[in-house]
Amino acid sequence: MAAHSHTHAHSHDGIDWSSRLTALRQADELDGEAHRVVARRLVRALPDNPTVLDVGCGAGGMSVALVEALSARGGGTVVLVDGAPELLDVATGLARSAASYETDTSTTTVHIRPVLADLATERPADLAGPAQLVWASNVVHHLPDQRAAVLGLVDAVAPGGWLALAEGGLEGKFLPFDLGIGEPGLQDRLAAARAQWFVRMRENTEGAVRMAGGWNTALAEAGLVEVTAFSYLIDHPAPAKQAVRDWAVNRLQWHMEVAGDLLHPADRRTVSRLLDPHDSAFLGLRDDVFLLTANTVYVGRKP
């Protein structure tokens, strides 16, 4: 990949997010229904014509769900913030398509505003505050100082507005316990390797500060009240559609890229068979691949 495609914005965590576009879009497709339910739940409490800030919007999966939820209740503004131009372009295109659809009764107006920004150095409040809802999904854990990042998000919330932070949950599963090749229990060893990689990624992030405690504590300490949380499932049981198998192949590939060196050589051999389209064990053709994961959303109101 050419050097210029690495945006400065995501270099803190060492991940080239533009190269992850296909995988992000795949995941968004599979998470679509769950995202719509979450978006409706979050916008229900908002005043008319609110501003919603999608921080670290990625490929736009939740952006689209938020646009649809606002359309259904008369309109508003969705501000998309991301540091990778390729992702922001895709998210903006998808959000604009979703904003212009007509309901049976009327044409609702949702305004879309994209903002290219590096969240480690730029304050969300300066970019697009104050918003009645700030949504940030799996973005804070990539920033050097997570507590400072939460404070920055809270600054962007209008008084009486809400911050919804999607972080944590349960590690996704997609492999049966015994694949018929290699030692059973590969999924758990992949998860352990990924957890080790994550700790290493945080340690190697320049200026990284540890944040002890849970996300609810961080929200309360940042001055939010009525702090609660809910979790939602993404559940595509086996036998799953091809899109799930394709996602699983990409996911396993990504596990290898980031944490392959932390796996036992025997597991690495198993994985290379699972990723080989010419092998009888190829993951993309297995009927027993599935997707089951739980995401947690922490919510708090600004007094």
Question: How would you characterize this protein structure?
Answer:
The chain has helices at 21-43, 61-71, 85-99, 124-128, 146-155, 186-204, 215-221, 242-259, 265-274, and strands at 51-55, 76-82, 110-116, 131-137, 157-173, 225-236, 291-301. It has one domain (3-301): Rossmann fold, CATH 3.40.50.150. The radius of gyration is 20 Å and the shape is globular. The chain has a 7-stranded mixed beta sheet with strand order 3-2-1-4-5-7-6, sandwiched between helices. With 303 residues, the chain is an alpha/beta fold. Helix 1 crosses helix 8 (242-259). It comes from Saccharothrix hoggarensis. GO terms for molecular function: methyltransferase activity.
Key terms for this structure?
303 residues; alpha/beta; Rossmann fold; seven-stranded mixed sheet; disordered N terminus
Count the domains.
1
The CATH architecture designation is: 3-Layer(aba) Sandwich
First and last CA, distance: 46 Å
Could you name the CATH homologous superfamily?
Vaccinia Virus protein VP39
Strand order of the largest sheet: 3-2-1-4-5-7-6
Strand content: 15-25%
Q: Regions with pLDDT < 50 over 5+ consecutive residues? A: 1-11
CATH topology term: Rossmann fold
InterPro entries: SAM-dependent_MTases_sf (IPR029063)
Pfam families: Methyltransf_23
Keywords: Methyltransferase, Transferase
GO molecular function, one term: methyltransferase activity
